[in-house]
Input
Amino acid sequence: MNPKLRRLWPWIAALLSGVLLAICYPPFTADGLIWIWQAPLLGALWFSDLGEKRWRRGALLGLVCGLVFFAINLSWITEISHVAGTFFAGLGALVALALYLSLYFALFGAFATTAGRWIIPKPDKDRKDLFELSFGVLKVAFLNGAAWCGLEWLRGILFTGFGWNTLGVALKNHLLLVQFADVIGITGYGFVMMFSGVIAFCTLVRLGLEIRDRKRLRPHVDFAFGVALIIVLFLYGISKVSHVPDEAVDVRARIMQMNIPIEDKWSEDVKMRQKVIFDYRDLTRTFVESSPHDLVLWPETALPGHFNFPWVQEYFNEHVLKGDDFYLLTGLEDSTLKGDEIYNTITLMKGSTETYQIHKKVHLVPIGEYLPFRDTFPIFVWIAGGVIENDFTPGTIFQPLIIEKDGHEIDIVPLICFEDSVPRHARKFLRQKPQIMVNVTNDGWFRDSAQPLQHFNNALFRCIEFRRPMIRAANTGVSGFIDERGSVYDRRSTDKFARVLRDEESGSTHIRGSIPANVEVNLNPPMTIYARYGDVFSVGMGVLALLATAFSFLVARRAKPSITSPPPGNPPPE
Output
């Protein structure tokens, strides 16, 4: 191999893996590549000359892969430049976030070149143990799957967490395969996908070597095991998808999506703000006066005012609710009388504001709803200080809101903005009673980018993990209804239309409109294994990976280096 190419090919391979992984998610959605994206990276980690400090070079290769992936996958974050007023704010946010998140890829790269390294035994035509190679692959696949799974879990909790677009999320169109998320959570599928991907890669390498060196094939128990795992997941999915609740009640719900630009909602032009207020009133009254509704939903911070403002109270009582028999659930800002504390809330009312129930958002978004180290690091003020002039105050209570339907109390699990993509947060609201998860969000910050669809795809797995339906009311999309199987289709209807508000011709969800649906609520919903025990599987996998790392380190320390022996490493397969 050309010396220059020998030096470059590992970096090209890492870059390629990052690109392949990125196009598994919106706006590209080539999700079939999720099974093979890691092949170039694994080749670079296992078959290139990394020198004596393999872990260090492996970490750099992982970092390159992660940087490419997140730079493409999260490019939508640059849209905040329009609100911040400078292009460099969006660019700075993308670079900073991509650099941080790629550190998890770097940790995986370091692991895969040490404790998770695959060392191919030398060819031996007389090898009697037919299954030794397969067991070796299974061991490597398990270890790397465990490491990746643990890192996905860690990414979702560290520094408030950003567990966005894990490997399992790419399977959102393959619902039969992801129903096991009610046991292991969506981060648990990080193990499944990496385990399967390693086996597939090793199988291809082994086949090539067997044909070249032995002129005959050996048993591939590892590949059979990987296929069996996918079949088991598929069969489990069939049983869950076909399940029908013994007792259920329908909630007639309607979502209002006004598609209001951020600049207009908080415009200094009084007429512009009045238009926002009257549009919500007129659209809502048009529907509730023409047909019965149980629940009407508006998105996050729907109105340019706080709930405790007198004009807001009058607006709801005299113009929207009017004493009628329907629940209005809306995202609103609220504040203390002195105005020194501001909350992002979900507020539920029926008939008048006197009946209100309110939930104050707990999981605030850094550099979105508050500036961390505002007075310590000026860079955060430079990036978002013009947008976030005052920090929101976090709530502290995990208590569902309550509606009544046909004599049954139904919990509303209130999730605001990105909270529907944080499973450990949503889990705290779960009760052994009828429940609907509701997310109100305003992804208008990111305009008509891939962000709203990515957000929606991450959110739908809460329905599978907890076996609760979800209603999502967004200002600019994606607004829609998701059942407890993670499906946007109504299995009881002969009309096979997705219950998502979008333009039929372009497919864009960045539109103004309204969408109704009957939400089937199980009166005796299960408390799934994941709901009871959370991320115990992912944490367990992470702990096993840590133990393997420690063991590998001890073995390396005890090994005596040989002066005459060449540096360890697999030669690249020819």
The two ends are 9 Å apart (CA to CA). Residues 20 and 37 are 5 Å apart (CA to CA). The chain has a mean pLDDT of 91. The chain has four domains: 1-113, 132-245+537-561, 248-362+397-524, 367-394.
